[in-house]
Every structure is written in C-alpha cells, then in structure tokens.
Amino acid sequence: MNINGVHIEDTFAEAFGMRGTRLLITGENLKWAYHGATALTGFATSVIACGAEAGIERKLDPSETPDGRPGASVLMFATSSKELAAQVERRVGQTILTCPTASCFGGLSEGDPIALGKNLRYFGDGWQASKVVDGRRFWRVPVMDGEFVCEETTRMVRAVGGGNFLILTRNSQDALAAAEAAIEAMRKVPNVIMPFPGGVVRSGSKVGSRYKTLPASTNDAFCPTLRGVVKSDLPDEAGCCLEIVIDGITADDITIAMRVGMQAVCARGRDQGVIALSAGNYGGKLGQFHFKLREILAEGGVQ
Amino acid sequence: MSALTLTLKHLPAGRLDLSPLMPFLASGELSGLPALPLQLATQKIPLGELFEVNGSDATQLVLQGDLSRVDGIGAAMQTGSLTLAGNAGAYLGTGLLGGEINVHGHAGNFVGVAMRKGSIHIKGNAGDYLGGILPGAMQGMAGGQIVVQGDVGERCGDRMRRGAILIGGKVGDYAGSRMLAGTIAVFGGAGKHAGYGMRRGTLMIRGEIEIDATFADCGEQVLPITNLLFRSWEKLGSPFGDAAGQATPVHRFMGDRGADGKGEILRFK
C-alpha cells in the first residue's frame, strides 16, 4: 500500500486493556483551569514509571461544565482499577486542590464510581461540607482562596491504551513537521489522548534488554544510528523515526484517531520527506487489541 | 388510558383525610376505589360519596375542586404525577417517596413533612412547617425537592436532613430551624430567627433578613458551589434561575453557634 508516495507497512499496532476516567477541571478563567489541568496531567506519559497516562482531551466552554466556568477535559488511564483510583486521588490532591480557583468534577456518565473528593475532603479538618445537586454529591473544602469544590466520585470504565503508529522520514525536521500535523488533527478527535510530550515519543521500546533488571529497552530496529549494526527496519532513505501513542476510551476511538493522524501524515507525502508509516507491536501475543494500519487507512478511503 | 381524575363534589364540612389514597392506588386494584373508606372529621365515608371518579391511569392522578380542607393528599406517593387544579389542605405529600406533585393553588401547613424523594411544586403559597418533621421523628424532610413560588409560613425546613426547598416569595420566622443538612433558598426575604438551632446545611436568602447573634459573620465571598446550585435551578425559571451562569457574591454567616454551628446563611442580592 502506498499513499502519496508514503509506504504503509503491512503491520499492526498492539494495544492493551486499561482502566480510564474523565475529569473536568474548571477555574475562574481558562488560564487557571489549564494551570490545574496541565499539572494534573504532568509526568503522565507512560504507566511504566508514571503510574498513569493522562492528557488534556479538549477545552471546555462554560456551557459544557457543571459550574458554568471555563475548563478543560482530562482523560486518565492506568493498568488496573486500584492503580487508577490511587493516581486520581494523588494527582487531584496535589494539583487541583492546590490550584487557585480550580474545581474538579467527574466527566463520565457510566462506569464504576471511584473516589475523587471522597477522601480529599478530610483536608478540610472538619470544616468540609457536602452538597447534593441533582443527585451528585459535591464536597466543599475551605482553602485559602475560598472553597475547593470537588465531586465525591468519578466513573471508571474499561479503556484501551497503547494504540500507536511510527512515522519514518528522511530527517528529524521532516519527522517533527509530520508528527505535529498528525497531532493537530488528532487533538480534534474526542475520547483520546496522546500522552507523550507534544503527543510524540522518540524512545520507542522493544521487550527485554541485555540487562537482567531492565524489562524494556530501545527499539534498535528503528534507531537510525544503529542501521549498519543491527537488523534494521528502517528503509534506506529513512533517517528518523517518531512514534505517536494513543490512549482512548474504546478501540473505535483509537482507530479513528490513528486514521486521522496517519491521513495527516500521508497528506504531507514523500515530497515533504515522509517515507513510510509503521507501527509498534510485540508479535501480537501480549495485547488484546490489534490495529492494522492498512485496514484502518483503507476503511477511511485511500486518496 | 386517560388520567385518573377525582373531582370533589362539594367542600366537606370538616377535615377530610385523603392519606390512604396513594397506598391504595399503589396496590393497583382500581375497582374498589369508590368504596375506599376515608376519615371525614369523626366518621368514615366511602371515597365515592365525596369524589366523582373518572379515567383509569393512576400514574397521572388529577384532583379537582377546592381541596383546602382535604389533608394528606399524595401522602406516601411512590411514583407518577399528581396534579391539583386548586388548593390543598395540610400534610400535602407527607412521607413522599417519589413522583411529582403539582399544585396550582395554595397549600396548607406541613407540606412534604418527612418526605424522602420526589418533588412538590406549589404555584401559590404554603403554610407552616413545610419540609418539616412528624411528631416523634428525629429528622424532617430527607430528600427530594419542594418548590413554592409564593410565600411560606414559619419553621420551614424544621429538622430538615437532606434535599432542597426553594421559595420564590418570603418565608416566615424560624426558617431552617434545627436544620441538620440540606438546602433552603428563599428569594423574597425571611422573618426573624432564621436558622435558629441549625447544625449544618445551607440557608440562602435574597432580600431582607435579620441575622441572630449566634451566627458568626464570615464576610463576603464568591463560592463556586452557588454556581452549581443556581445552574441546577435554572430550569425552574425566575426567580430561581436568575443568578445562573454568573458569579454571585454571598455574605456568609456560620451557625447556629448555639448548636453544632456548621450551618450557613448565605445572603445574596
């Protein structure tokens, strides 16, 4: 398969079942809502060492938030329900409770409830109070700028993490430009986040390493500097490879995001240095979800 | 199926207790309805002698006529809707468990006492002890919502535990007395001793109000929680939704310091 001079590798992305939730962060204005949301989703690129993968899904207009203030919608994913619950509490407690004027609400209408403000309320040292509005319980914790308002629980659903594709280009500049175009298009897709810096990751990994203590290590098959030394998967013309990783509420959401992102990359074409698209997998034995690049692009209509 | 309609034939000479009606309808057997014995003053009278019965859909009950001497209307109702074209007597919606009651006229004392769920909407005024407590009980209203567009009498929300009471007009003395939790919002001012003995809960009052000495002045605040409340009341129209979508400064008083003292009166404009 070849789109606009870009070779589409006959391979698939391998993704895993995760637990996810959506949080709505509001503030006095968009600036402070985003300060909170940015801190909340900071250092949340990979569950390998961050505990959670999180990102800002989109901006929220005042008409879309429970308290009528501007805000941001955040998606957070973890490998187990226990870990997600722990991460939600720890992160909200350290970033939204602390952020001036910010409030925090659950953003899903179905799924199992996990604690949001349920335990954070004890920060109020007895002065906390709750209020039930339209069947949802909110906690009010006195803080130095007034009150921290936080919904008691948020809903947790089964989600999918680790959808991905690799962008192979002539050089690093072309790779950045193609990845940025993909991310810009993918940010418009609901129910997904790209958790890495700017949505893009350069340190793709393979399973295992030569060191006993290290379960994953650099994906040498795609490292341009090792081309002549290891069995390389890089085409001759390719001098750089970047990966976009996607976490989503459902596999369909990831499919849509992958298609939109890959189409944006292909639209740049070989003229702008894009050589090929590939994907990361572990032979198909580890993850429950397989996203086949050619099928996804064929369904979206080949240009 | 058309709505089950009960039309009162004439104003009874004494007080009529209609509280057995909803439990009877919940049993689902409508044929015995005209024979249902009701207590009128000192005697038992079959319902059919007092009301004309039409229609068969008990989930959309309509009561017509002047029911200002009929007490216990909608008591222990669980689901469906109950509409009153005119006035209601005392104990309207006592122990309400669900569904909605709409009254186009006025209602007497003890509206929604000990109610747990559901909603009561009164277009006119209501009497004393609205959302209050039954004799011998520990808690008053424990959930649901009462909306009164007119004025309400004294001791509104006495020992209230949960839920919301919204009053478009003014409320009498001792509003929110001995309140345990929940929300009362008044949009036309309150009488004396508002929040007397309240332990927790919120009393929001627009307009004139005297604050008792047992309440501590916490000063003027902008509280995000009021955004959530006003927004949820927006669908009720004016005056309840007037402040929706805008930051409303409130003057906060905490008390009653003579009781647990964690309640609040929020005065706003």
Topology diagram in text:
The complex is a heterodimer of chains A (303) and B (269).
Chain A: E1 2-3, E2 6-8, E3 12-26, H1 30-40, H2 47-50, E4 53-60, E5 71-78, H3 81-95, E6 103-106, E7 112-115, E8 129-133, E9 136-143, E10 146-151, E11 153-169, H4 172-186, E12 192-193, E13 205-207, E14 216-218, E15 240-248, H5 251-268, E16 274-278, E17 289-292, H6 293-299
Parallel strand pairs in A: 2-16
Antiparallel strand pairs in A: 1-2, 3-5, 3-6, 3-11, 3-17, 4-5, 7-11, 8-9, 9-10, 11-15, 11-16, 12-15, 13-14
Helix pairs in contact in A: 1-3, 4-5
Chain B: E1 3-8, E2 16-17, H1 21-26, E3 37-40, E4 43-46, H2 47-50, E5 51-54, E6 57-64, E7 70-71, E8 81-84, E9 100-103, E10 119-122, E11 142-148, E12 162-167, E13 183-186, E14 202-206, E15 216-222, H3 224-233, E16 249-255, E17 263-268
**Contiguous runs where pLDDT drops below 50 for at least 5 residues of chain B:** none
CATH class placement of the largest domain in chain A: Alpha Beta
SS strand fraction of chain A: 25-35%
Number of helices of chain B: 3
Q: Characterize the main sheet of chain A.
A: 12 strands, mixed
Describe the structure.
The complex is a heterodimer of chains A (303) and B (269). With 303 residues, chain A is α+β, with helices and mostly antiparallel strands. Chain A has 2 domains: 2-15 and 159-299, Alpha-Beta Plaits; 20-157, Alpha-Beta Plaits. Chain A is built from 6 helices and 17 strands. Chain A has helices spanning 30-40, 47-50, 81-95, 172-186, 251-268, 293-299, and strands spanning 2-3, 6-8, 12-26, 53-60, 71-78, 103-106, 112-115, 129-133, 136-143, 146-151, 153-169, 192-193, 205-207, 216-218, 240-248, 274-278, 289-292. In chain A, a hairpin with a 2-residue loop joins strand 9 and strand 10. In chain A, helix 1 (30-40) packs across helix 3 (81-95). The longest helix of chain A has 18 residues, at 251-268. The model of chain A has no long low-confidence stretch (mean pLDDT 95). Chain B is mainly beta and 269 residues long. Chain B has 2 domains: 1-57, no CATH class; 72-268, Glutamate synthase, alpha subunit, C-terminal domain (Pectate Lyase C-like), CATH 2.160.20. Chain B has helices spanning 21-26, 47-50, 224-233; strands spanning 3-8, 16-17, 37-40, 43-46, 51-54, 57-64, 70-71, 81-84, 100-103, 119-122, 142-148, 162-167, 183-186, 202-206, 216-222, 249-255, 263-268. Chain B has a 13-stranded mixed beta sheet with strand order 5-1-6-8-9-10-11-12-13-14-17-16-15. The A-B interface holds A 26, 62, 66-69, 101, 103, 127, 129, 131-134, 138, 140, 146-147, 149 and B 162, 183, 200, 202, 221-225, 227-229, 231-232, 244-245, 262.
